[in-house]
Amino acid sequence: MAKVSKKIQTRRERIEKVLPILKKLYPTAKCSLDHSSPLELLVATILSAQCTDDRVNIVTKSLFKKYRSAKDYAAVKQEVLEKDIQSTGFFRNKAKSIRAMAQSLIDLHGGKVPDTMEQLVELGGVGRKTANVVLGNAFDKNIGVVVDTHVTRVSNRLDLTDHESDAVKIEQDLMQIVPQEDWTIFSHLLIFHGRQICNARNPKCDKCPLLPYCPAGQQIMRERNEQD
Ligand code: SF4
Predict the structure, then answer these.
(1) Which of 157, 199, 221, 222 to mutate to test the pocket of ligand 1 (most atoms within 8 A of CB)?
(2) Is residue 210 pLDDT above 60, yes or no?
(3) Exposed site from 4, 56, 100, 161, fewest CB < 10 Å?
(4) What is the CATH number assigned to the segment(s) 38-137?
(5) Above 80 in pLDDT, residue 39?
(6) Among 48, 80, 47, which residue's Cα sits nearest to residue 66?
(7) pTM across the whole model
(8) Which residue ranges does the chain devote to CATH 1.10.1670.10?
(9) Among the residues of 67-160, which ranges form H helices?
(10) Under CATH, which number does the domain 6-29+147-227 receive?
């Protein structure tokens, strides 16, 4: 068996402490993009780039009634779809991605969303992060860890990765230390924690149950105490 470095071992031990606390803290943590099918989640995930999940959910409420299949998205004119999704921002690129994705679903898979990473990233407009969201949440497959801005920040503060911002490298670090059956939920837990306690500007370390295991939190508390 490959020898595990001291750093990985320390991080695995930290995960063992932190994961049960997070699961207890956020028992209802789940994907916050509303969807009732893999196709809907695929569309919602594309729309969620640089946009809040709440805003996406407002837009998809009517969007999903209007477009029910890959064929519907592939057939709509670019300008019409742009208008439908305008308020999510970057609507030209997003409309292009959704239409390209829908067309490749029809060409390659008879309109059905596939359930493997290789097939998903082959679709137009779909990257690894989007594929991970769909596999984990629509197909219940722990194929990777979704790394967004919250996961990036909280993982760095908890010293779970060596990489500050490269999502692919952060994901690789996390996959080495988080048990595979927890990959999908781990990402939701960090997103919930990042939104509710470990905020970007002003983390509530004094109220955070992860403080005993968090190098950055302990540093932040020392600095705050020195200022008092
Ligand atoms: S202790 Fe502070 S920095 Fe660490 S996870 Fe909690 S809120 Fe974030």
Answers:
(1) 157
(2) yes
(3) 4
(4) 1.10.340.30
(5) yes
(6) 80
(7) 0.90
(8) 6-29+147-227
(9) 70-75, 78-85, 91-109, 117-122, 128-137, 149-157
(10) 1.10.1670.10
